[in-house]
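ARCHIVE CARD
Drawer: 12
Card no.: 0347
Subject: one protein chain, sequence and derived structure
Cross-reference: see card 0346
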Amino acid sequence: MHINSYWAHSRNEQKQRNILHGEKHTDVAIVGGGFTGLSTAYHLQELGYHTTVLEQNNVGWGASGRNGSLMLVGYKKSLVDIAKKFGIDTAQEMLQLSLDGIETVKAITQKHDISCELTNAGSFCAAYKPSHLENLKREQEFMMEKLNYENYIVETDDVRSEINSPLYCGGMVDPNSHYFHPLNYAIGLADAVEETGGVIYEQTPVTAISHTNDRSVLSTPGGRITAKHVVVATNGYSTDLTKRLSKTIIPMSSHMLATEPLREETASELIPNRRGIFDTKNILYYFRMSADHRLLFGGRIQGEESSTLYSKLRQCMLEVFPQLENARIDYTWGGLTAVTMDFFPRIGQMQDGTYFATGYTGHGVSLSTLMGKMIAHNIDQSNYGKSILERLPLKRIPLHSQHALILNVATNYFRFKDQIS
């Protein structure tokens, strides 16, 4: 586990699972023990299949155990932009998928009594500029009038009712967003997979996958497993094991820190309603208070983990909350998310028969659980109705576009730094 993360420090008891040795057989072999892979296994077990999850580290080791924990309604692209691109009906469908993701997490958590601090405090999208607030107003109006979905605007004069920060000039509250302890959810979901008869191997990297007409063989350092179906659920940690898939995403790093426990009064002054918060900058910040009153603060700062990087992230935190100048930083950690060229997730089946879901672009905390359920139903029923996300083609990102996208991220970050320095 990523030992310096707050999530790892505060996690529930986590069992150590066996390494795969020898020859095994299963209905469905799943590569990756994060939310997507575990959800796929769980829902397939519910449908009567035998599943085997192969995780190269431990359950929840990747983004599923390191993320910002905000279970948001929506996508990287606004519903207004989605409607312009695909039409009102598709925007309504995609909104419902996002809501279904949250409901799926809630249902599993409740059914299996997973202790993961699941909280419906809503979210606050903080406007960095007055023009951003005007955009949020247009989105709020659109969602109410066209999608019959209710959220509400907080004007500039009232922004301190949501966040005590000099950096923002208003924002939008979504009452249906949640947050939770992501690693504890992954641990509980893995336990639920095993309770329903699934098998999970840890410290078991897949080194090769070969396909025949009706079977696939996955090789590992200690053995092999033969399966009728294969699911790859590695997202930002995809490798050349699945070249077709890895060339459709760009892994982007995101980093977090956790302060020391704050006085409860201080925590309530900073974020009065204890919402999950993210902002409107292209290189966004996201943050909330933990159950023990720590500020959990994250940002899409690119680069290798280092004291210099986390010093920059702390300065970002202080731009939001200068009141925390003297607060000790107890934990720092980072990881990878996967970004697609158009910022929409992808789910489907490749030409060799492999099922996949990837490219959550920072919005996969609950959507990934839903994607696993969708993969399970697609395996069970080949004619299962396809959502818009399953109808989007899997597009390779050209090398020059990868460089441009990465440069765009870096440029916007440093431009923002210049503006507020």
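Annotation on reverse: The CA atoms of residues 117 and 180 lie 5 Å apart. The longest strand covers residues 329-339.
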